[in-house]
Known about the structure:
Layout: H1 5-27, H2 44-62, H3 67-95, H4 105-112, H5 133-148, H6 154-170, H7 180-185, H8 190-205, H9 211-231, H10 237-240, H11 242-253, H12 265-272, H13 274-291, H14 298-331
Amino acid sequence: MQKIISIQILRGLAALLVVTFHCLATVIPDRLSAGESPILGAAGVDIFFVISGFVMWVSTIQRPATPAHFLLARFVRVAPLYYLATLVYLGILALQARIPAAFSVNEVLYSLLFIPFTNSIVHQDVPILGVGWTLNYEALFYLTFGIALHISHASHRAGFIALTFFCLVAGRFWLPSDTPLLVRFTSPLFFEFFAGILIAARYLATNKRRPVSGVLLAFAGVVLLGLVPVYAPWLPRTIAWGGPASMIVCGVVECEALLRGPRWRPMLLLGNASYSIYLVHDIVLDLLTSTVLPHLDVWLFFPPALLLSVVLGVAVYHLVEAPLLRAMRQGLGHPRLH
């Protein structure tokens, strides 16, 4: 599959949004929260979810795959770097004597198996590496998508995925929501993946792109991301952020022709390194918070924290992620799906 430049660039922007949000949340935690803040950065995750649905649909339509091949390819793409980052972070916590007595080895297993649980270190429903909570959703989406690949007809396949997500979300109304696993796996956020599938189906249905309409749609999505949480805070995240995130993805892919060329290479680099940036920035911010932040004015902390997170993320991409992916794909016979 030819790489869709607009999607890669949007990945880079989404990663920057998430890193910016977490840097701000470190500086002014009393004024920011992922559930209430009008800050656009937190919605970078929603953009990632829509992109994931888009990319999985386009890649499997253009390059058909068996369920086993698809799931192996997704494991190779996502798990090794996440496992490495988790173990590095756990080692840092151990060196800093920040692992509580209540900590269990099961927490490591749950983290590595993408099973939601309550973390005894931070007392939140996140894995050891906090940003990995999004991978819990990704893992179930990949599993659902992989099963759906047994269905040869594309529209029936999409229908199966939609029905599965509907049943999961409906379960929230009659299943007890007192466990992290049920809270995560009955979340309406799964509809954001399906929104990406719908955008992908539309993208593949025509070769005609409308860049002017795309720019306007993406701009409208950005405006709504800023306004909806302020003026309609009662709306669920899937609508308040998932809707605008879908508009942004749909608009940006219409601008594919405008985003090709050397001027966009820096953003393309960020897009290629977005996964490394996303994982590494959580470790960087935790280290800086426990060592540097107490000795700096909070606003002097923000710029270097943001820059260091991005620079180290790009370095990890070049030095660890890309070589690791190449080695694993060669060893396993190139199980590659974007």
